[in-house]
Amino acid sequence: MSYTFPLSDESKVFLSNCIFRAITNDLPELIYENRLPTSVGSGQFRWNFINRNLLEDAPENFETAFAKRGGWIFILLRDAYTNLSFSIMSEKNFANLQKHPKQKEHYLEALVSQNEWREPISSQISIDGFFPDRDQIILSELRSQLFSGFTGIIDEHVLVLYDYNYSGVTTIRAVLLTPKLEIAASDDWTSFMRNTFIPTKTINVASSGEEEDLVSLREEYTPNEQSIVEINTNNKRENKG
Predict the structure, then answer these.
(1) Which residues, at least 6 apart from 25, have a Cβ–Cβ distance to it below 8 Å?
(2) Which residues contact 43 (CB under 8 A, 6 or more apart)?
(3) Could you tell me the mean pLDDT of each successive run of 10 residues in the chain, 241 residues long?
(4) CA distance readout (Å), 46 to 121, 196, 210
(5) What is the pTM of this model?
(6) d(Cα 12, Cα 3) in Å, to the nearest integer?
(7) Domain ranges in the chain?
């Protein structure tokens, strides 16, 4: 169902633009400036830009913390005004996770494990197969571990999803999930992703890695120029689930 999260427009613009700029601007600019003939590995490298933008541009009401699951390092956020927490994932990876649940507890399941009262959208297509039973103690312990970097109360968890094509990010939305990763509510933030955002603080950058490949380059770069053109269309998009 349609849902509006109790966040300020500034907060929505911040989260949307961190993703939009990283994939649509920052990564293609790096490829162009270094005269790279291909974009192999860019699906993983883009997260360095997303994470940098999240850390450097976060408004004062957002608390940020690193979390680690296996070899994957990612950033979680907490809004002090609402006590909501946030993480980011591509639509493609989320769809794969819905359709093919992992044998072991996935970190996203731990993050949304407290959304117990949420009901899935009635018109939602059922996921393929049977969602495995999970050990609630393991999920609770993992949730505490993931949120250990925060000092305040954590309420529900919000997943920010983005989709893209060769020209950059096309859609961004925020969703509330049930513990079985079904969508209970969705808020479209696509209109916020091109808005101007003025950072309010600066924090150091960190590293990470994962995900699909983006096969695109800047044809020409100036500070305010937005156009991106696809090159090397024979490159294969890389995926990591």
Answers:
(1) 168, 226
(2) 210, 211, 212, 213, 214, 237, 238, 239, 240
(3) 81 95 87 79 84 92 91 92 95 90 86 88 57 84 94 93 90 94 94 67 37 35 32 34 36
(4) 31, 21, 9
(5) 0.76
(6) 14
(7) 9-192
